[in-house]
Amino acid sequence: MTRISAAITAVGGYVPDFILSNEELEKMVPTTADWIETRTGIKERRILKGEGLGTSDMCVKAIEELLIKRGISASEIDLIIVGTVTPDLIFPSTSNIVSDKIGAINAWSYDVAAACSGFLFALASGSQFIETGKYKKVIVVGADKMSSIIDYSDRSTCIIFGDGAGAVLLEPDKEGFGIIDSILHVDGSGRQFLHQKAGGSVKPPSHATVDAREHYVYQAGQAVFKAAVVGMAEVSAKIMEKNKLTSADVDWLVPHQANKRIIDATASRMGLDAEKVMVNIQKYGNTTAGTLPLCLWDYEKKLRKGDNIIMSTFGAGFTWGAIYLKWAY
């Protein structure tokens, strides 16, 4: 029997209009535009402005574009998975809200909380429903409104993150295209280096936690940087080795956009030239779960049917992994 694989058949994306530049951040925290760009590769990031707007609103924009491109309606969707750590509400899940807003009346949905690895983990999960033959159309979204949990007086984090959303449609393929393999990892001991101190069941919100500014991202930058360099580089090399791919075989690396130096280290470990690496960190910063699909969105016109693509990520948890896929259109 011919193997069914989950192929990406459409991509949609959305970034807010408001641009927060390095020059603006110079006025907010003790830093310089040159220092930010040199250390991270970021020149600007997008911020979602507007009363009552949340992660679901960005998801809706990305999905609506995807549906138009594919020429289908929301009622045809079987499942929606949203990777995010900035949900609209603690409950219900953001994916439930998105389903309602787009009119996906025949779909069920759930969220995946794996920080920067959220989209990759959700993509691996969503592909299983296609591969088993259970569903025909699965939408996977990576989206975060990081501005909602960033302390803009903390120089170590406010320079890094931005807001955005990207979405892909998965459909069955029997011609050898789509997701071929994945390697996923977690190490919960890494939580001490990157987390949100309060707001969960261990430390619920209180006047004390708000006053202590514990509802923002906390990051021990150097420890996270070292772990990310090793994690992303090694898992990317491992998935190449596992699938007998050389650097010449790989057409594109789609790396998580956390830091340009981490991206460069991963590409170097894989033996890839810069022209094979998708980079948009300079425009959007780190949109957490949004980075990978936003790269596909930005580079979609350069992709060719049959291209060998490695997607690689590293996030809080720690979470990391890689997916190997063949582009289907």
Task: Provide keyphrases for this structure.
329 residues; alpha/beta; five-stranded mixed sheet; four-stranded mixed sheet
How would you describe this protein?
The protein has 329 residues and is of the alpha/beta class. Helices cover 33% and strands 25% of the residues. The chain is built from 11 helices and 13 strands. It has helices spanning 22-26, 33-40, 55-70, 94-102, 118-131, 155-158, 207-211, 221-242, 260-270, 281-284, 291-299, and strands at residues 5-14, 18-21, 44-47, 79-83, 108-112, 138-145, 163-173, 178-186, 194-196, 217-219, 252-255, 308-315, 319-326. The strands form 4 sheets. A 5-stranded mixed beta sheet has the order 1-7-6-4-5, sandwiched between helices. A 4-stranded mixed beta sheet has the order 8-13-12-11, with helices on both faces. A two-stranded antiparallel sheet has the order 2-3. Helix 3 (55-70) crosses helix 4. The radius of gyration is 19 Å and the shape is globular. The mean pLDDT is 97.
Quick structural overview:
The chain has helices at residues 22-26, 33-40, 55-70, 94-102, 118-131, 155-158, 207-211, 221-242, 260-270, 281-284, 291-299, and strands at residues 5-14, 18-21, 44-47, 79-83, 108-112, 138-145, 163-173, 178-186, 194-196, 217-219, 252-255, 308-315, 319-326.
Write the layout of secondary structure elements.
Layout: E1 5-14, E2 18-21, H1 22-26, H2 33-40, E3 44-47, H3 55-70, E4 79-83, H4 94-102, E5 108-112, H5 118-131, E6 138-145, H6 155-158, E7 163-173, E8 178-186, E9 194-196, H7 207-211, E10 217-219, H8 221-242, E11 252-255, H9 260-270, H10 281-284, H11 291-299, E12 308-315, E13 319-326
Parallel strand pairs: 4-5, 4-6, 11-12
Antiparallel strand pairs: 1-7, 2-3, 6-7, 8-13, 9-10, 12-13
